[in-house]
Design goal:
single chain, about 5% strand, about 160 residues, 2 strands
């Protein structure tokens, strides 16, 4: 007896975007919880200040999706002029969130399994690259949680996405 393998999805593109945006919303609330000076200057054990980590996240998400949607390879630029203003970082975060939504709609479902070289150096499929973007955000957010707790600040609940 021959069986035909059905092509069914476990998760839709829209559900994956909602999952990622849930993480982005939580990361935004974490940024908001930081006192201004500590956001830019506080560090533990040689880790970077959380503002530097957030700049990395901003450098990856939208530029990475622009590349996935067919634009040319972008240089990974992790430094953003912010004038040590958390409000400016939050504005950039919100703008990136909107652009991410716009770019997402330009990724055909069949593209998720294509092989890419993100930022001209990181090999993987479109879906594995996007998962890396999400995993990287979760990783750095965890570092931010440690910073806030060490400052005596209760971070947002991680399950409230």
């Amino acid at each position: 007896m021959e069986t035909t393998k059905a092509n069914t999805a476990v998760i839709t593109s829209e559900e994956l975007l909602a999952h990622w945006q849930g993480h982005r919303g939580l990361t935004r609330r974490l940024i908001e919880a930081f006192p201004e000076q500590e956001f830019f200057d506080y560090s533990i054990g040689g880790m970077r200040p959380f503002a530097d980590m957030v700049q990395e996240l901003l450098a990856i998400a939208v530029p990475g999706l622009r590349e996935i949607t067919g634009s040319k390879t972008e240089e990974l630029k992790e430094h953003i002029e912010h004038g040590k203003q958390k409000a400016h970082i939050l504005k950039l975060w919100d703008e990136a969130t909107e652009e991410l939504n716009q770019l997402w709609g330009q990724i055909p479902v069949e593209r998720f399994h294509e092989h890419i070289l993100a930022f001209g150096q990181y090999e993987g499929s479109v879906w594995s690259t996007i998962f890396y973007f999400i995993d990287n955000e979760i990783h750095h957010r965890g570092q931010g949680y440690v910073y806030l707790r060490s400052l005596g600040i209760e971070p947002p609940f991680f399950w409230e996405r």
